[in-house]
Amino acid sequence: xxxxxxxxxxxxxxxxxxxEIDPLLDxxxxxxxxxxxxxxxxxSRAIERHPGRVIDVGIREQALIGVAGGLxxxxxxxxxxxxxxxxxxxxxxxxxxxxxxxxxxxxxxxxGASYDVSAGGRTHQAPADVALISALPGWTVHVPGHADxxxxxxxxxxEGTGRVYVRLSGQRNSRPHPVDGRLxxxxxxxxxxxxxxxxxxxxxxxxxxxxxxxxRVAWTATPHPLDADxxxxxxxxxxxxxxxxxxxxxxxxxxxxxxxxxxxSRVLHVGVPRxxxxxxxGTPRDHAAAHGLDPAGIRGPVKELLG
Length: 307
Fold this sequence. Notes:
12 helices, six-stranded parallel sheet, 20% strand, Rossmann fold, 2 domains
C-alpha cells in the first residue's frame, strides 16, 4: 500500500479518508476533491496546501456531480464526497448522465452507509445505494471494512480512469484484508461445507454469528463486479451459500445467480430487508438489530439454510 499520511492513522474509515486527502493531492497532480459542505471542516490542511483543488459547491448535490463530470471531461480525476443519500440517491440522474453517459471517470466516496447517521432520520439513510450504482454500466463498487483498506483503495483508484464508488461505514473489522477484487476464504472447512460470503465490514459479525456452525466463511471488499470465478471455485458443484451484505438484501442476487447459473444451488441473501421502513431512530446498533444484521440476526437464517 502506498500512502504518505503521517502520524498515527485513524481506525475510523471516514476519518482515514480525510487523512489521506492531503497526501493524495501531493501524489496525484491531476486529482481534485469535490465536496458539498460535508467534510470540508476536516480538510483545512489540504485546502491550505492545495489551493483550488478542494472545491466546495455548497449544499448542491446535483451540482456536486455536474462539477465532477466537467472536471473529468477536462482531464482531471475528481474524488467526490458526501453522505451516501446525497451522493447517490439525490443526484442519481447526474450520476447516470454527467458521468456514465458522458463516459468519464470519477471516484465517489460516501459516508453514512445504510444507517450510520440513524439519528438524522430517513433522509440520511441509504441502504439502496449499492443497488442503484450497480444498475448503471461501467461502475466498480468497493465496500472496505478497515481503514487501511480505505487508504489502499483510494491511492489505487486515484491513478485510474474508471467510475468507482467507495462506500465507507462506521462499522469495521478488527484487521485489514486484501482489497484485490477477489473473494478470500477466511474460515476453511470441508469442501462440501456451505459458504457464508461476508461483504466489507460484515466479516467480523459473520465470524461471530457462525463461530460454531459448520460453514466456511469467505469475504470480499468488491461486490461489484463480483468475483464470479472465485465464487464458483468456493461453492462447488451444488452450492449452498449465504451472502451477507451491509445494505439492501439481494443487491448481489443477480450476480450470484449468473455465476451459479449452471449449478443447482440454494442461496440466502441477508441484508437490510426490502420491506423495512423504520420510523423510530435509535443508534446504528439498534438499526442493525432491527434489520437482522447483528450476530443473532445473521445466525438464525444461516442455521435455517443449513437445514
